[in-house]
Amino acid sequence: LLDKTVQQLQAALKAEKLGYAYPVLYNKESNAAWEVRKAGLGLLRNSAGDRQPVNLIEDCAVAPQDLPAYIDDLLALLNKYQVQASFYAHAGAGELHVEPMLNLRKTEDVVLFRKILADTAALVKKYKGSLSGEHGDGRLRGEFIEAVMGKEVMELFRKVKHIFDPNGIFNAGKIVDTPPMDSQLRMQQDIAIPVIPTHFNFDADGGIQKLAEKCSGSGDCRRSAVAGGLMCPSYMATRNEFDSTRARANVLRQFLRDPADAAPFNHKEIKEVMDLCLSCKGCKTECPSGVDITKMKAEFLEHYHQQHGVPLRSKLIGHFVGQMKMASALPKVYNAVVGNKQLRKWANGLIGFHPDRSLPLLPPQTLRAWYKQRRPAAAGQRRVHFFCDEFTNYLDVASGQNAILLLERLGYTVILPQHRESGRTFLSKGMVSKAAAIANDNIAQLAAVADASAPLVGIEPSALLTIRDEYKDLAAPGLRAKAAALAACSFTIEEFLYHEMKKGHIQQEQFHEETHSIVLHTHCYQKVLSSSVYSKFILSFPKNYTVTEIPSGCCGMAGSFGYEKEHYAVSQQVAELVLYPHLRKLSGNEMVAAAGTSCRHQIKDGTGLLAKHPVDILMNALK
């Protein structure tokens, strides 16, 4: 009977040409539909331009049997004012979330804002409905409660309020004695939006102010670790609204909209609310409105540093390559210091790192030095350009070697092109102008050699995916086309191997058939800008290899964040949400896989387990 009803519904929708897809979802599959419904409000905020769907009458509800007539009347009302609206959510409860499309920066639209609500309140009363069916009235609809409920009921509300709150101090002005709904709007009307020069290109968002204003306040960033997902790790750890993505967007919006402020970024309040942002990029994709706080934080810090100077520790981290060049000249001396507990604590104190955080040791030579000195491998049938990023070159040399050897044994010629570091360390500390100079140099150098037939492949997600993400917004106007072309042929090694395996260029027979169980922690940037699907597929490609992904978000390290003295505790809190407890439950027979250099260091520091890069595991799996 249910199947027949579903088929009849599909047929009716198709006949009326309503919709473009009619999937039928069962069991866990239905969660995908509910996630789209939950994301509806935020997704609508991605509409281009100043005219946006506004919270106004989206919570009005009537009896389900009256909903069709109510919606017809509501459409007539909106047509009278020549206003379009968005519709989404759950008609079964007698409620559709209807949001008129208005530009609240214009006085005439603010007038419509009030008129539409007043007329809808009368409509709700006509159908004996509720002004707010599931949320609340507050300052927006509180003024119209009396019109819907009547004076007698409103007086009872006031008496109840007075009994429990005689001094009127709790949530004042939300239900009784509410001020006019259009008297305390965030936006000012009929003023020119200031054009703020930025180092990143925010044109796709209409400027950095518009990107901040995309936040709908839906609270998707306030999920707990139990609910899963990446966004927002600092909020998951502290459970403090101040540390949420929403709070950061709101503070930015508050300061960036003031046309009289000649230095809109020069506010300690912005610095404070950004302090615990781990720049994981989770908000870039998990926020339904795509409010990219990572990008805005880096831009803010660049401007803030111009006013206050760059802190010494930030300079040292940003100039990571310079530090490593000096250290790699005398690796034994460096390792003697960071390998000694007392000397390391002393060195950490000088830099501003937490005394309990260990530092990675340096290999005897860099990856470039190893590649230059070794005997050239036999030419393979297909070419790959290897992105020798700064972390792989100086710290993760063994995994870099395994990646090159793995590719060569699988039949590829591996070329190390000339290029600069990725610029990731400068971006992480808000030195965007320095990162932009590096990005433009790399675009010019790498776009000249890498293409679809000989792509650029890297093993450090944060570095390689910087090319795919930030480079396009850091490119000079004359290099933007090349930046886009370079991004299109740049792949993490997991992505590259996945596609080659799918094409049949790599065979299962090239790997042994031993039985191994692998648990995978996926790097934040892979979750956001790529997918864990690639890692899971390539690690389970050898016969009898099984992979289980840890349902973890950010590991808490986030580059230098987990090293920094004042952030160490939060870093560990984030790791303790899911990652550490899951790893401690392992039987000891599993291999732990993680692509990020900092992820593997966090795992070793917190659990003593030695996590391997996927290329290390596959190299050992080769026959």
What structural class should be given to the helix and strand makeup? alpha/beta
Helix % is: 40-55%
How many separate helices?
32
> What fraction of the residues are assigned to beta strands by DSSP?
5-15%
Largest sheet properties: 4 strands, parallel
Overall shape: it is globular
In order across it, which strands form the biggest sheet?
5-4-6-7
Query: What's the alpha carbon Rg, rounded to whole Å?
Result: 28 Å
Q: What gap, in angstroms, lies between the N and C termini?
A: 56 Å
Low-confidence stretches: none
Number of strands: 10
| Average pLDDT for all residues | 94
Q: Could you characterize what this model shows?
A:
Helix 3 runs antiparallel to helix 4 and helix 26 crosses helix 28. The protein is α/β, with parallel strands linked by helices and 623 residues long. The protein is globular and about 90 Å long. The protein contains 32 helices and ten strands. The model has no long low-confidence stretch (mean pLDDT 94). Helices cover 48% and strands 7% of the residues.
Ordered list of secondary-structure elements with their pairings:
Layout: H1 2-15, H2 30-44, E1 52-53, H3 67-80, E2 85-88, E3 97-102, H4 107-126, H5 138-141, H6 145-149, H7 151-164, H8 208-213, H9 233-238, H10 245-256, H11 268-274, H12 282-286, H13 293-308, H14 312-318, H15 320-329, H16 331-338, H17 341-351, H18 367-373, E4 382-386, H19 390-394, H20 397-409, E5 412-415, H21 424-428, H22 432-446, E6 456-458, H23 461-468, H24 470-474, H25 480-488, E7 490-492, H26 493-503, E8 516-521, H27 524-529, H28 532-539, E9 545-549, H29 568-577, H30 579-584, E10 591-594, H31 597-607, H32 614-621
Parallel strand pairs: 4-5, 4-6, 6-7, 8-9, 8-10
Antiparallel strand pairs: 1-3, 2-3
Helix pairs in contact: 3-4, 10-11, 20-32, 26-28
